[in-house]
User: Fold this.
Amino acid sequence: MKAAWYEKPGPARDVLVVGDMENPQPGVDEVRIRNVVSGINPGDVKKRQDWAGFGMPYPRVIPHSDGAGTVEAVGSGVSPQWVGRRVWCYGAQSYRAFGTAAEYTVVPLRLVVPLPESVPFEQGACFGIPGITAHRAVHVAGPVEGKAVLVQGGAGSVGMCAVQLAHRAGARVIATCRTESDKEIASRAGADAVFLTDQTLEERVKGFAPNGVDHIVEVAFAANIDLDARLLGQGGSIATYATNASPAQVPVWSLVFVNARLFFVGSDDVPPDAKIEATHAINQAFEAGWNGFDIAERFALADIALAHESVEHAKKPGRTVLVI
Assistant:
């Protein structure tokens, strides 16, 4: 099969190789997917850069955790009825060496989700990391029906998923965005109110939720925690999946006075049952008519280095994918 891989961390053009590898064979409780589209997440790029300083977890890594395609073969313990099904997968390169930047990917069946016929492969290839992260960040503190939920960064991949999933769960959703053009993305995802992150933000949010917001989905913890603490209502909660800086200063007393709860969400380590719940919710959103992600750029497998550079230096909103 054709595949892309790296055997050392570093700049995309220096370390990514495209070549031939043996076709992988599914083992017990595994399926082999013929990939149509491979999704690229910021985390995939950061792993290749070794941004956390962990080094190479495996001698060779085929990048990308998310993808979509058709099941071509199954291992023992898997019903042959899976063969030929349209599917999306997640976690292909989470604690695993070989992801979806290849013609074929072998993954455990538990990481495979049927892709509704109405949903394009390129959308399915983008579901995994942002969708599971968003669903957990929305629901980790409990049901949100009837509650005011603030999504910081509502036009990003995780943010727009969080807006949609909170909206479908019955929340009153406030989204924040950095630019006027981003406001339309968050509105399309289902936000009831969208505000720019300017000097009037606190006043506007309090006008929408005068008793404070019940739950916050946070993308820039260090930058926003002071504001978040002021916006929370009594017993409110914050779920953060990223930060603009680490370590971060935390306004402990402000959070104590509102009996706040604080959650940290990492998509790779979301409990398995919560991941399954998230996949069902994501599919249901698309089956109900959500259009999902804007696709900013499409690259061929041979151009994976350019694709990674596009993610590193994004020039327009939306997802970057490899068309295998």
About this structure: The chain has a mean pLDDT of 97. Residues 272-287 form the longest helix (16 residues). Residues 248 and 318 are 28 Å apart (CA to CA).
